[in-house]
Amino acid sequence: MAPEPDVTSLSNPLATVEQLSTSSSQLDGVPPDLENSLRFAGAQLTQAAGILLRLPQDIIAQAIVIFYRFYVGSEGGSFRINALKDVSAASLYMTAKISFVPQSTRSVLNVYAYLTSSTSPLRQPSETSAKPNPESYYLSEGSYQSARATLLQTESILLRALSFITQVTLPHHLALTYLQTLGVLPPTPTVKSTALAARTLAYLNTGLFSPQLLYLTHQPSALAVAAIYLAAREVGVRLTSAEWWEVFDVDREELGFLVVGLGSCEGWIKGEKGRWLGKSCPLTLEELETEL
Amino acid sequence: MTSQTKSRWADDEEDAALEAQRKREKELKKKAKAEKQRKLEEEEILRKKNFAGATAASEDGVSAHDEVDAELGRPSKRRRLSPEQDQARVEPASAKPLRFPAPEWGPCRHVDNFEKLNHIEEGSYGWVSRAKEIATGDVVALKKLKMDNAIDGFPVTGLREIQTLMASRHENIVALREVVMGDKLDDVFLVMDFLEHDLKTLQEDMLDGFSPSEIKTLLLQLTSAVEYLHSNWILHRDLKTSNLLMNNRGQMKVADFGMARYYGDPPPKLTQLVVTLWYRAPELLLGAEKYGAEIDLWSVGCIFGELLTKQPLLQGKNEVDQLAKIFELCGIPTEATWPGFKRLPNARSLRLPNTHQTTGAVIRAKFPLLTNAGTALLTSLLSLNPAQRPTASEVLTHPYFKEDPRPKSTAIFPTFPSKAGQEKRRRVASPSAPKRGDAPKIVGDAADFSGIFADRDEEEVGGGFALKLI
Ligand SMILES: Nc1ncnc2c1ncn2[C@@H]1O[C@H](COP(=O)(O)OP(=O)(O)OP(=O)(O)O)[C@@H](O)[C@H]1O
Ligand SMILES: [Mg+2]
Fold first, then answer.
1. Example GO molecular function term (chain A) (predicted)?
2. For chain B, how are helix, strand and coil distributed in percent, rounded to 5?
């Protein structure tokens, strides 16, 4: 029905150089390494909560981008002031609220109580899955009310910090369109074309967790092109026309950077998981203070 | 233009002075914009350099980067000689990537950056006032969002209003400049470009309404905004003359996104509690849970009719009366003209006469001065069956706009007498957008509307013709 969507709807606001050079958390004494870990822990927490709430992956991914945006720059939020678990919950709650799948404060808070409890699967990344202990995450009416107040207040703080820019455009859909345009996604899928599409999306999903905040520094079109580049190389699909990325308005330099960024992401995540093996990355303010 | 209309909209000295002032301001703004664009470009370059630097710093990065460089068939970045050389490299225009100025985020500014001038209007979702940005002297409109139903945190309507308006950049949609806050976390204001008039008040103040060529221009502007919204999967859901703003340069801009939201295909379940009653499509009144862009085109049809007669077209007193007024003008739907309508929730309780009303004749009778093409367009916009309504794009290419009189160019559009003080707009009572919690169902006593068709289809009256709610 509708003609081509307007180009502006395919772009995202990007972090400024100033916002990338420092952050509130660093100014508050959080070392950059730990800051990366906290960001990753927050993204993982959001992802896990989204899955428990049965939210579609695009809503979860948007919430993760919102979460990142909040903590960027000297005027953004600080991990020492706004607990990552609260900001994660508010990002997910707010993103779901404006989507087709709004969630009640009750279900969001129940899930976060569980995921931040001592028996949370996030606290035991290894396979030693002890039975979750309901006692440790049951939300009484009293604690629900105070958690709810925190959630709603954090939502306001989040919105103010983002100057109400809640729009997040993801590259996934675009990447599939590009694959079609490139003629490598035939109407009747082949083993190779299926693998190509799957790997492209996998690179985009992993890239969401990049410590380089790729989703905050590059437009969806560039992310899509880089993921296709990596996937095609891996699956062994030749994209015939030379410099095909220029068709999608992505220049060589940006592509080169993103290919490295997306390509190294999986390794970084592995390292990060190893780093916190046996203990848990701090999810609450108190835990962070102890860590510091 | 006749001499009568000339006196109404004469370009007097004051207007000329205003025009000159406007030009000067425009020049200044242009300069500021160019400067900003230059800065953005510089930042973009810096950003890239920064990242390249960051990658080069990690050992992994260096080797990986070189590898990719080799693959992509370009000299490694570190081997580049000097920035001057870089600049000298001439890129073919076609290969140059397009850059769209993306907004940035940062904390909201305080509303204290604006000086309130006067109140404009209090609506159902907030109040609006005219204000001046202290730093720039720009006159803007400030709309305060109402927060009263804050049990679920920030009201979703406000979030959507901001989200959809922010995503809409079109010359016929009011520009949202930024969102600012007051002292409390829930004092939230939209800062918009200020427009001198709204179409409803403007029309009420006019002696004999807009000329046919002006109506075409207004309708084209409205429809191109609607086309833009729909192509971006946004439903406005509250199109009406009081939400259409006008400046003194013949430009119309759609405002009030308080009901707007993203939608999908297939349409998701959405609330039927949308659109001010007089502009509400029949499928909404009948309780359809799934609806789409067609509801906005119904409203466009109502606005078209209103521009022609200077009167809201369908002034129902309540939902049932609204439906009766619609059927009176457009005929009774049948399974043939609107397959499946009987299964809509509120249609089940509606007993409709079994007749074959035609719609064309009544619309034509009500608008005797409208040409055939105009009548055809209005009739199609007011199709009871949403599937028969044209899309916004189809409206834009309708023959009505190609026949004489042609749409008046906005450049020679009359400038309306500027109410310099922009005092509070006089408002004739009319229904407002539905609030959450209004009952969407048509309930109540059986209503008999047999009378309304009396002069339309006399034979049928004798046959127990009645529109009944049972
Ligand atoms: N940018 C603007 N410039 C000038 N006037 C404006 C502007 N925005 C809104 N107004 C005026 O304020 C009125 C109310 O604005 P708006 O429709 O956005 O608010 P609302 O509270 O949603 O109203 P309602 O519920 O009555 O539709 C408009 O009809 C118009 O007269
Ligand atoms: Mg309004």
1. cyclin-dependent protein serine/threonine kinase regulator activity
2. 45, 10, 45
Which candidate, A89, A128, A142, places its Cα nearest to that of A111? A89
At A1-49, the pLDDT tens digits run 333 444 446 789 999 999 999 999 999 999 999 999 999 999 999 999 9
Distances (CA, A) of B408 to B367, B369, B395: 21, 18, 17
CA dist., res. A275 & res. B2, Å (int): 82
Query: Where along chain A do the CATH 1.10.472.10 domains lie?
Result: 19-168, 172-274
Structural domain A172-274, CATH architecture: Orthogonal Bundle (1.10)
Q: What is the DSSP string of B211-254?
A: -HHHHHHHHHHHHHHHHHHHHTTEE-----GGGEEE-TTS-EEE
Beta bridge partners of B118: B130
Identify the helix (H) or strand (E) that includes residue B130.
Answer: strand B126-133
| Catalytic residue chosen out of the listed positions B238, B445, B448, B457 | B238
A157 touches chain B (CB under 8 A): yes
**What are B327's two structure tokens?**
């059927």
A96 in contact with B, Cβ within 8 Å: no
Whether residue B427 contacts residue B232, with contact meaning beta carbons closer than 8 Å, is answered with no
Going from the Cα of B256 to the center of ligand 2, the distance in angstroms, rounded, reads: 5
Residue B163: which of B103, B88, B120, B225 has the closest Cα?
Answer: B103
Q: How far, in Å, CA of A233 to CA of A184, rounded? A: 13
Minimal-distance CA residue of chain B relative to A168: B163
Give the closest of A6, A162, A163 to B232, CB-based: A6
Q: Are A37 and A282 in contact (CB under 8 A)?
A: no
Helix (H) or strand (E) holding B156: helix B156-167
Is residue B237 within 8 A of residue B275, CB to CB? The reply is yes
Q: pTM here?
A: 0.81
Cα distances (Å, whole numbers) of residue A50 to B7, B154, B343, B423, B431: 64, 20, 36, 50, 41
What is the rounded distance in angstroms from the CA atom of residue A223 to the CA atom of residue A171? 6
| C-alpha torsion angle, residues A153, A158, A164, A169 (rounded to 10) | -130
**B355: its two tokens:** 């007749």
* pLDDT, tens only, A148-164: 999 999 999 999 999 99
Our CA-based measurement puts residue A214 at a distance from the nearest CA of chain B, in whole angstroms, of 10
Domains in chain B: ranges and CATH: 111-192 (3.30.200.20), 197-331+358-436 (1.10.510.10)
Q: ipTM score of the complex? A: 0.89
Give the amino acid at B211: S
Q: Which of the listed residues B237, B243, B419, B430 should we mutate to test ligand 1's pocket, taking the one with most ligand atoms within 8 A of CB?
A: B243
CA B131 to chain centre: 22
Q: Is B152 a catalytic residue?
A: no
Cα B198 to Cα A110, B15, B193, B195, distances in angstroms: 47, 19, 13, 8
Q: Which two tokens stand for residue B67?
A: 């590898």
Q: For the range B330-338, what are the long-range contacts, defined as Cβ-Cβ under 8 Å and sequence gap of 24 or more?
A: B330/B282, B330/B359, B330/B362, B330/B363, B330/B382, B330/B383, B330/B384, B331/B357, B331/B358, B331/B359, B331/B362, B331/B384, B332/B357, B332/B467, B333/B282, B333/B384, B333/B385, B337/B384, B337/B385, B337/B388, B338/B384, B338/B385
Q: How far apart are CA A251 and CA B48, in angstroms?
A: 12
In angstroms, the Cα distances linking A264 to A258, A269, B47, B57, B74 are 10, 9, 20, 14, 21
Strand-pair partners of B246: B197, B252
Walking along chain B (470 residues) 10 residues at a time, the average pLDDT comes out as: 39 54 57 57 51 39 50 43 35 37 81 92 71 96 83 91 94 96 90 94 87 96 98 96 93 95 82 89 94 97 97 95 93 89 87 62 88 96 97 98 92 69 57 64 48 41 37
| CATH fold label, A19-168 | Cyclin A; domain 1 (1.10.472)
B179, β-bridge pairs: B190
